[in-house]
Amino acid sequence: MVEQGWTLLEKKQKFSDINRKVKPQKYVPALGFDWLTIWYDLTIRLTMPERKFRNKLIDHLDPCDEERILEFGFGTGANLVLVADRAPDARFTGLDIDPKVRKMANRKLTRYGIKIPLKLYDGEIFPFPSDSFDKVYSCLVFHHLNIENKRRTMMEIFRVLEPGGRLIIGDWGKAKSPILRTAFYAIQLLDGFKNTRDNVDGRLPELMQETGFTGVKETDFINTMIGSFCYYEGLKSRLT
After folding, report:
1. Can you spell out the DSSP letters for 147-194?
2. What does pLDDT average to over the chain?
């Protein structure tokens, strides 16, 4: 018998990984290089319509009080500051792989008087039981992952979502014009052509469907000076 979104082999591998200590994966830092991480917030502010793309992400997330919501890849905590203000009684959790950005995010949350648990993981198994969250959202993370890690991450998101839960992704997508496609080469030079190829080819919805998400669609996009920032949504069926 195969559970939706998981093959029997994948389930066996998953439980095998839980029972052994997994060496943390190498990861692509926020701006491609570890020494540039401290400049991440400034870079986003200078190259993107930050208020617009973050607020639109939260609009699509539509956080409600008492909902359990996970941000995969919380980065420097910019989104968590906004969502905590939008739904102060929701139960937010952050997950990331980079200890440097966790320190930056903790400082930012402390400055705003916000208490949200920020977890680190090894790039493999999320440190949460199955069916732990009503919603999971992610912003500017998946273009850092190669195809194998994109699939693995989506399977973990699928696992920790409640049946009926939603995944919302905001990330680089297929460019809406040749000029924007050319501009996106700046991102690819920093974050790697291999990792970003699936994004610019518009494959994120396809990967979500392969994982088991239903009703997958691109819900919106914003054209920026460095590419097309797209919003995707998928549902974990209640029939899993």
Report:
1. HHHHHHHHHHHHHHEEEEEEEEEEEE-S-SSHHHHHHTHHHHHHH-HH
2. 85
